[in-house]
Design brief:
alpha+beta, Glutaredoxin, 2 domains, four-stranded mixed beta sheet, 9 helices, 56% helix, Glutathione S-transferase GST-4.5, glutathione transferase activity, Glutathione_S-Trfase_N, Glutathione_S-Trfase, EC 2.5.1.18
Length: 207
Amino acid sequence: MIKLYYRPGACSLAPHIALEFIGQPYEAELAQRDSTAILELNPAGAVPILDTGEGWILTQAAAILQYLDKRFPEAKLGSTGDLKHDSELTRWASFLTGDLHPAFYPIYFPNRYTVSTKEEDLENVKQAALKIIRRKLAVIEQHLDKKDYMVGANLTYVDIYLFPMLRWAKFQLADDGGLKNYTNIERLFAKLKHHPVFTKTLELESK
């Protein structure tokens, strides 16, 4: 059986949602930070971690989402077999992994981006990160113009992957109106937030 190791609110929320969409039996276990068991599964200590139930472990949210998409094609999480469509899935999953997600790191771990311990300098690191986040969101906002979802006409694992990052963005940009400055993003976020599979998964992670 598939087993997902997660932490509430982290990007591991995305594969958790995907597993709920798939509807096959799986286990979900709360990962204790830096525990020996987690470090044995993933030396980086990060989630998500997926025990595939096939004798091997997979890490990295985008890789896990792509794996689930291919393993359970009947769930229609993204791939259609069309080269352009599937390349767009990879493109935007890569953008989220390499551009948007890392933009949040200086906010949560500002001490990693300066040798200074002064509160003012740490705050400057956070403010610089917020500028980057706004730029990355602007790219997505423009892309979503006249689109219902990130890739194609239907919800895919890219939308699922984007969801936790939009939750972070809404919180971090609260003093600047949250997502209100990004009307296309806000429209997609509202749609995802009220989807029953998303709400169910959030409830599961809140227990």
